[in-house]
Amino acid sequence: FSSPVLVRRLIFGFVPIQASCVQYRLVVRDVNTLQILQLYTCLDQIQYIEWSSDSLFILCAMYKRGIVQVWSLEQPDWHCKIDEGSAGLVASCWSPDGRHILNTTEFHLRITVWSLCTKSVSYIKYPKACQQGIAFTKDGRYMAVAERRDCKDFISIFVCSDWQLLRHFDTETQDLFGIEWAPNGCVLAAWDTCLEYKILLYSLDGRLLSTYRAYEWSLGIKSITWSPSSQFLAIGSYDEKVRILNHVTWKKITEFEHPATIANTKTIVYKEVEKSPSVETERLSFPPTRALASSLFSTQSKYDISQVPVSLQYIKPVADRANPKMGIGMLAFSADNCFLATKNDNIPNAVWIWDIQKLKLFVVLEQLCAIQSFQWDPRQPRLAVCTGNSKVYLWSPAGCVSVQVPMEGDFQIVSLSWHSSGDSMALLSKDNFCVCYLEREEV
Fold first, then answer.
1. Angstrom distance (rounded) from CA 241 to CA 229
2. For the sheet containing 25-30, what is the strand order?
3. CB of 206 within 8 A of CB of 144?
4. What structural domains does the chain harbor?
5. Per residue in 88-115, pLDDT tens?
6. Is this structure's pTM higher than 0.85?
7. Nearest alpha-carbon partner for 62 in 99, 33, 88, 94
8. Measured distance CA(177)–CA(275) in Å, rounded
9. Nearest alpha carbon to residue 391 among 380, 381, 401
């Protein structure tokens, strides 16, 4: 199924419903049948949508107008409009309880907390404009906010039940770039700008547990991620390495390098190769049918196992430009903590999959095009990859496969999103989206 819509953000709720937007309209569909359940019309072009945690409400943000509209699935006639007025609006999100909305005003002057239940309003001053300035614990009890006051970085921790300040402390950073809670909610990671390699780990009461610095006088941290068990913190750096910290001493237990040549014979290298589809001459007709014409001019691909050593395509970054394409730009743990997937921007066509139990490189996927996005199945160790073409690639310990999306026209997949059940995923292009359904194996 495809629809000519512009999907700004598509998030699956816990019920089988999905939402997408087409300029002024919000379309709510059933995930299994793709039937339209509700159709809402907003006041302006929608730039961001987000489900509440219980999937009962949908937030639609119109940043140009400084307005947020909220729609209810249980009560279609109920409506809510939040107007930030002259303060403007640059970001909007739900709180974990699904009954409060956090709006960040222009120039990051404040964060306004709106309650849908009591209609009360709370304000948080001096939020910092950084990559990830707001972080909630997984259980939804606490929220951390990065702040900037008097040319110095601070972190404030709030209790989400009543939005009271729990802790407020300064950080030893030059320019705080982001914060992220461990999944167990006990440790908060805060990392500095890429100009200085520094990551700080704080407890819930604001105590500094540890500081880690791998090197100095070079571009530092580019990406971080926690393992689902909170036992490991993976740090991707501009030096093309991933360092793993343990949760006991917060010291490095290993580092993963990403060389251009794979020499270890125990590493499996899957290489994507193209093949021309074979068409029987008896089936040829003039003019050809639409399905036959599509198969004649489409290229299929499959994976071959390469013999090591294997040389991967390496791109030397341009040194005199900002934000150079180098270092570890993507990394993600599988849901069972067994695998870590990474991408080195210097080698844009490869996905590296590491065995966390053995702390060794397990598999490398070498694609024909640059990696656009990858994401783990939330229920099992299965990785979905897209490279900007009309194919989706799936890897599991049993092997990997290339799947052609059966669509007419040019459908270039730039991102993807798994359903929480792992039975389906949304594939997004610039102007279209489709839903991919996966059959569950019978045990």
1. 22
2. 17-22, 25-30, 36-41
3. no
4. 1-123 (2.130.10.10), 270-277+291-317+324-442 (2.130.10.10)
5. 999 999 999 999 999 999 999 999 999 9
6. yes
7. 88
8. 45
9. 401
